Amino acid sequence: MTTKTELIHYRLQAILREHNMPDLEYLGEDDRGHLYMIGKSEVYADQITELESEESDEDESDPI
To answer: Is residue 54 part of a domain?
Structure first.
C-alpha cells in the first residue's frame, strides 16, 4: 500500500512537472527519503503534513 509520504512525494513531482515553481526543487533521495528544497529550507517528504493549492477561480475546473 502506498504511504502518505509517497503520496506527498508523487504530488510534489506532479506539481514540479506541471507548474513553474521557483521555490520548489527536488534534491533527490537518500537513506531517509525524498528531499526537497522549499524556499531556503531542505525538507524531507515525510516532514510535510499537507499540501494546499492556491488556485484562481478559472483553475477550479481543472482539479489537481
So the answer is: no
Let me know if residue 58 belongs to a domain: no
Does residue 40 sit within a domain?
A: yes
* 17-55 residue pLDDT tens: 999 999 999 999 999 999 999 999 999 999 998 887 666
Residue pair 54/14 in contact by the 8 Å Cβ criterion:
no
pTM exceeds 0.85 for this model: no
Q: Are 36 and 27 in contact (CB under 8 A)?
A: yes
- The single-letter code of the amino acid at 21 is M
Helix (H) or strand (E) holding 14: helix 4-18
Assigned domain for 57 exists? no
